[in-house]
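Action item from last week, closing it out:
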Amino acid sequence: MTHTITAPVRGQTRLPAMALFGLFLSGFIGILTECLPAGLLPEISNTLGTSIAATGQIVTIYALATAVAAIPLSRLTSMWPRKNVLQVALGIVAVTNALTAVSTNYTLTMVLRFLAGVGTAMIWPHLGGYAARLAPAGRQGRAIAIALAGTPIALALGVPVGTWIGSFGGWEIAFYASTALVLLNMLWVQVTLPNLPGHSVDEHKLSRVLLIPGLRTILFALTAYMVAHNIVYTYITDFLRHVGMSSQTGWVLFAFGVTSVLSVLVVGAHIDHHLRKLIVASTVVFAISVLVLAVLSGIPALVYVAVAAWGLAFGSSPSLFIGGAIKATGEAAHVAQSIVITFFSASIALGGFIGGLLVDVDTALITWASLALLIAAAVAVIGGKKHAFPPSA
């Protein structure tokens, strides 16, 4: 079988920008579909006749569905041509988004959101490997960074724009708009992406992949990092209220968004040669940012600086962790990616759950809990010098 990392399209010497944009937009759509309800909860709650807390579970169930379905669906579709998998997944997301917009029943909406998460579970595990196989030798890291850049950009721009669109004609308009975007992306993917072959389903068993040196360290660091992020990010509005900055929430999130996008540019330019330095810097800078939020939140200017640094550290973290997993696992990368996505999605749900428990006790606790997790992540990343994040990566 052709090595996952070193199999660019024959004869290609430059990055296939058009194809990578299709992968980028697919990742953008996955995060947008997951987080879109977060900015529209009061309106959706009124339509469904449920509390805001109950309505918020339509975000959680999406993340849980992605976590549960990523590995089995990756194995089920492993032999399918890659573009076929992506198109089926995008089709599921388009249909469920459109039906969500017309649903007025809470149970039906939860089912639709679960199915949408299942669709996304077929998207994320394939983006990094697909991009790497399309790229010329020596530029796979940059291709992965581009393909996965949709995640921070959706967090930075997609959710606020979706909320803004919803303000014009109800939350349903935002879901219709996202459906239209998915359909346009399906057309783009059909025209621009080569249909690369799948992988033999029995070639790499899950248990053997988990034993590959470095992967478990990567999974531990990823989980600690992402849970830490979601503990604070999910409840950032409550944290800003706690420190007397609720009126500046929009600007604080804007600062996070701008530096998240900047992170994509910085990491994309250097990931092929400096993966280890970038992942260490990302973890350490994030930890310092949370420490500042924990002890100096009474100074608004420092809150802005800390959140901006957090965005810079976090923005391309999916590219760094998935890139590390792909390099560490070689020909088993297609299996490793589904494992990484499972941990990634589960961390989103777990971070939100833990954060909710902490906020009920004392909002200030979310920063300290996040800091403890980031210290653990930093120890794992810095210590994973031999296999997980070697200098040569």
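Closing note: The two ends are 23 Å apart (CA to CA).
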